[in-house]
Amino acid sequence: MKTFLLVLLGALTWPAFGSEGQPEIHSVDLDVFDHASVRRGAEHYIHYCQGCHSLKHLRYSRLAKDYQIDDDTMKREFLLGERKMHETLLSAMRPEDAEQWFGAPAPDLSLSARARGADWIYTYLKSFYLDPSRPTGVNNLLVNNVAMPNVLADFQGLQVPVIAHQGGMEYIERLALQQPGTMSPEAFDRALQDLMNFLVYVSEPSQLQRLKLGKYVLGFLLLLTVLLYFLKKEYWKDVH
Ligand code: HEC
């Protein structure tokens, strides 16, 4: 019976660690009102992601307006090539090319932070590991046989899987840094946090206005409560 339970437990826990399963998702602290962070995130995005991915719902002009980025900075840092302010952040790569080169199209990331969640993307970008059997030389804990290359490997360094055994099965217990990158793990995390702040903003640019408006509405309701309280006191004064 005990062995049976252990085997059952093994079968149940196996996917939690295995490549087809759901490994632990790490959470990332988000703040779309941190202007400096979102701007850094946008720069990282443009340099390291836009080569393959598009953000077809975001215009450069909207980004500039929401985060008060002046025209000169936009031209210098954000509008690569011949891009114009009124355009959306499209990738120069055609989806069919991506499909041919990587075996899968690089999806538009406009809504990715809502569809997948920022925590998931954050964990995904940290979960690439060396796998010589793959054409890109890497695999990913969250997406088995991932098509995307590890574009941030220079910064993060190279990770290898630490294999553990349980009930006669092998699984990846965790990833270990085999060769450090140009960033410390803390700096790499901060860069990813900036990138996630940007992607969360992109998934709903109007949230800036909505969240700000929310504060005003709450303030108004509070004021109204106070006023009504005094009004009630006034009315009941003569009754008591
Ligand atoms: C060299 C091209 C390339 C670059 C650069 C690139 N990606 Fe990707 N990305 C892909 C491809 C191809 C896929 C599809 C992966 C798959 O289906 O296995 C993908 C998938 C994804 C996904 C979706 C995963 C899923 O299954 O939902 C996310 C999120 C993502 N990339 C984020 C990023 C971010 C953030 C950056 C910049 C740091 C980036 N990518 C840079 C090619 C690229």
Please specify the SSE layout and strand pairing:
Layout: H1 2-17, H2 35-48, E1 55-59, H3 60-66, H4 71-78, E2 88-89, H5 95-102, H6 112-115, H7 118-126, E3 128-130, E4 138-140, H8 153-156, E5 157-166, E6 169-180, H9 185-203, H10 207-236
Antiparallel strand pairs: 1-2, 3-4, 5-6
Bound molecules: heme C.
Residues 48-49, 51-53, 98, 102, 104, 106-107, 109, 112, 116, 121, 124-125, 143, 146-149, 151-152, 195 line the site of heme C (HEC).
Describe this structure as you would to a colleague.
The structure is a single chain. With 240 residues, the chain is an alpha+beta fold. The chain is extended and about 85 Å long. The strands form three sheets. A two-stranded antiparallel sheet has the order 1-2. The longest helix has 30 residues, at 207-236. Mean pLDDT is 89; it is low at 10-21. It has ten helices and six strands; from the N terminus they run H-H-E-H-H-E-H-H-H-E-E-H-E-E-H-H. The chain binds heme C (HEC). Residues 48-49, 51-53, 98, 102, 104, 106-107, 109, 112, 116, 121, 124-125, 143, 146-149, 151-152, 195 line the site of heme C.
What features would you highlight for this structure?
50% helix, 240 residues, alpha+beta, two-stranded antiparallel ribbon, extended
